[in-house]
Amino acid sequence: MTALTRLRLKDFRNYETLSLDLDGRHVCLFGPNGAGKTNLLEAVSQLGPGRGLRSATLADLARHDAGGAWTISATVDDRRIGVGLETDGTSSKRVVRIDGAPSQASDLAELIRIVWLTPAMDGVFRGGASDRRRFFDRQVMAHIPSHGTAAARYERAMRERNALLERGHVDPAWADAIETRMAEAGAEIAVNRAHVLEALQAAVDARPEGFFPKGDLSLDGEAEQAAMAGEDFKTIFETLTEALRTGRRRDMAAGRTLSGPHRTDLAVIHRPTGMPAGDASTGQQKALLIGLILASAAALAKDGEGPSPILLLDEAAAHLDADRRAALFDELCALGGQAWLTGTEAFLFEAFGDRAQRFEVRDGEAKEA
Ligand SMILES: Nc1ncnc2c1ncn2[C@@H]1O[C@H](COP(=O)(O)OP(=O)(O)O)[C@@H](O)[C@H]1O
Ligand SMILES: [Mg+2]
Questions:
Q1: How far is 198 from 299, CA to CA, in rounded Å?
Q2: From atom 3 of ligand 1, which residue's Cα is the shortest distance away?
Q3: Which ligand lies nearest the alpha carbon of 37?
Q4: What is the mean pLDDT of each run of 10 residues along the chain (369 residues)?
Q5: Which domains does the chain have, with CATH numbers?
């Protein structure tokens, strides 16, 4: 099982210094609101590529009243990972070290894969398409780390295209070049999403029946649907290129790009009722979301392409009754990756028994309980 066995923080959020020695079991953090439980999960999430669980900027992560620099170091399956922000007063830069050697953030993906569920995701089925797309893309990134750079390339090209269209007078050769870059990145995005949707659906279907209902997932984007139907990268690229070219006049009138993978929505059907997830009750939506995240972690655990996932579950236990909590912990133990859970009270984690280590968090300190 992939597990953190050591976590050290310096000037991270509300932690001046913190040192946690872990024995490889699951980790339960309890303590009052504002103690620093979510900050700890956020610190773990910084050990992977990407911006972590709150999508914060690197500067936001520095402890107020400290100098602006922060570090997180951890031992994961006997490898030492360090990430941080270094600053010399005028400029600052992200640093990544693996076993003491300077490394790239993208190298982290080979050592650690992280999936999380936070209260901020609760409204995802009821929110707008962009919330669901972001939620799904986060799962895609956990499976395919290069998805993030494809998305960034797509966004950059799209901004250039929008700026060009806004000027009203378009040089066709220039537009062609930008649209080619957009279509290349867009096809990569679509192929990644289709791949992960299939893996995720298979993992959902393979989950035990029980308290966390299953969902049926689909993506409404044409490029993703073509990828799901087995069309190859080149065909999807050509279709996207053509759609951008023929859509220029329409997009010029609208002042932005109206079609493409940046508009894709994830549809989720609550299988027990056959209803769209957004119409399910709040409790049903929460349970469905837990099931999806467990499936995402299970898909990572069995894809053979990297370490088993670390699962961060912020405040997930509080809303479950005792039987559901016990079922959740049993499923976590079967997954093969270390889970980190938070809650305000220690009793929430009783059903873990001796399968988890517990820490009481208070004012930026954590004590083993
Ligand atoms: N950059 C920062 N520097 C110092 N304290 C911070 C920083 N960011 C957040 N905090 C503090 O951390 C606390 C919240 O921690 P959090 O982990 O969200 O609590 P909880 O235990 O409820 O999950 C708040 O008191 C907040 O003011
Ligand atoms: Mg919290």
A1: 10
A2: 63
A3: 1
A4: 94 98 97 98 94 94 95 96 93 95 93 96 95 96 94 97 89 95 98 98 94 96 98 98 96 94 98 96 94 96 90 95 96 94 97 97 96
A5: 1-113+306-369 (3.40.50.300), 125-282 (1.20.1050.90)
